[in-house]
Amino acid sequence: MAGVGCDGRIQHDPRWEDGWGTVESVVFGGDKIMNGAFWGRGVEIRKEIEVTYLEVVFSFSNRQVSALKSYMAYTLTPDPAALVGSAQCCVCKVELSVSGQNLLDRDVTSKSDPFCVVFMDINGKWSEIGRTETAMNNLNPVFAKKFVVDYHFEEVQKLKFALFDQDKSSKQLYEHDFLGEFSCTLGVIVSSKKITRPLVLTNGKPAGKGTILISAQEISDNRVITLSMAGRKLDKKDLFGKSDPYLEFYKQEEDGKWMLVHRTEVIKNTLDPVWKPFSMPLVSLCNGDVEKTIKILCYDYDNDGGHDFIGESQTTVSKMSEASNSMEVEFECINSKKQKKKKNYKNSGIIIVKSCKVTRDYSFLDYILGGCQLMFTVGIDFTASNGSPRDASSLHYINSMESNEYLAAIWAVGQIIQDYDSDKMFPALGFGAQLPPDWKVSHEFAINFNPTNPFCTGVEGIVQAYTACLPHIRFYGPTNFSPIINHVARFASQAIPQKVAAQYFILLIITDGVISDMDETRHAIVQAAKLPMSIIIVGVGNADFTAMEFLDGDSRVLRSYTGEEATRDIVQFVPFREFRNAPKETLAKSVLAELPQQVVQYFKQRNLPPVNSDPA
């Protein structure tokens, strides 16, 4: 049975031609198939299908749709290589380019000075993900700034592109004149590769004749190029001064047109500029082809937007890569009009590549695929405020019909993280309880009562140890976090001498109340931020969790009692009550939302490559 025709380009897999349909189109009753990877009765697909374009949907009979829905697995098969394609990881990175046409003119004596701000809908709120440079005195801007976003096949990712006329240097958007906006999903842009849409005002009316053009390119090449550029003896263009030079870099598209990919800053009043080093994805500069010709144009900046052309050079990344700290690469800057008019014309100056380095910008998937192990530890709150586990109102109460919030949190987080640890042996610790036989309070005890081997086999082992220990301990207090944080930090510190990204430690703390040792906990977190370690805190029950939100450094930098600042944000706090009536996948997704970024940030700060990585 063939699929519905479509002009979208989809990578096709012949294994699907078994009577279930051919992948060609986007029609499946609005239901999305996660990353095109699924398996069930009658469908023998045991490996992730790489979808290079668009949202994949299928055309089936009603019977087949029913069967597929019934048996579709929303996690991939136990193939370790396939696991990284599941819902919690992005399918790929997409680079978005933005330009505008016929924008509203908000300036009286000149044209608008537009810039574009891109927002993403995150949990129902528009969050800014970046903004372009300002195009001075220009109603048809082509912005050099690109936006790289993670494309998740299994999610509806809403984007909003808003254009403003810059009036002040303020970063507050209400200080600038609004020129119009356009909203759509990332899937719409990816499916079309390039779209042109009218801009609208906040009241929904057209923003004049203004339109926005957005193009998308998948970034599958993780190489990054870093360039240091300079110029020498450039042409003098200003009447009462020298020149204010800047560079523009262009790559050639498939249709032969040249596309702006980067613009340097302006260096004022000089013929021998030295621009700041800059980095960009190699695929942005040359589509990953180091032999592909690129153009470098040099201009003299004018405040009125009428920038004077100085000259251009053509080269390749391969040629520029010959530059190093000890040897520079030079190109003549040629103005073809001057060259035709003047017989003795030599050049309009020299463009210099002071250094050119190509490195790899590793992603979370690169580290995981490269062999990084996520070392998972769970810490459970056994303080008296939870209530006796024999009481039905206790947060630790378990009956044959349902579990409790502690178990739900362990399952939600552990089931995902365990897929990234080869031996699946996890330490499970408790705090705030009195232990037999002397009934002393402990804040870092093994819940299997084996201090020399606190490891549990998989999430099931953690659950078994947890339920088994409940009758044998006395809930007490206080609620101290620092001992268990320092416990995991000691192991994480042993990974520091490693020269590759081999291990990253994750501590899940499940608690019901207010922290008693806040100063010590803050200090422990600040020290742990220097280590390959993240902390996830799930608050159960209905207590006031204001202090927990303080530890989550999303809105401010966390400081220890000594005043030392955390080098990075490693804490993610989530109150369980917000997810009581939501699918269990929602809790896991929220809890683990920041983890990939934290892993990448740590290894990048220390220039640690994956265990198994290819040279750039």
TrEMBL record:
**C2 domain residues:** 74-199, 208-331
**Which keywords appear in this protein's UniProt record, sorted alphabetically?**
Calcium, Cell membrane, Cytoplasm, Membrane, Metal-binding, Nucleus, Repeat
Q: Which GO terms describe its molecular function?
A: calcium-dependent phospholipid binding; metal ion binding
Task: Give me the Gene Ontology terms describing cellular component.
Answer: cytoplasm; nucleus; plasma membrane
In terms of domain of life, where is this protein from? Eukaryota
Where is it localised? Cell membrane; Cytoplasm; Nucleus
Q: Does the keyword Membrane apply?
A: yes
Q: InterPro entries under this entry?
A: C2_dom, C2_domain_sf, C2B_Copine, Copine, Copine_C, VWF_A, vWFA_dom_sf
A Gene Ontology biological process in which this protein takes part is: cellular response to calcium ion
Gene3D superfamilies reported for this sequence: C2 domain
Q: What does this protein do?
A: Calcium-dependent phospholipid-binding protein that plays a role in calcium-mediated intracellular processes. Exhibits calcium-dependent cell membrane binding properties.
Q: Which PANTHER family match?
A: COPINE, COPINE-2
Family according to the record? Belongs to the copine family.
- By what name is this protein known? Copine-2
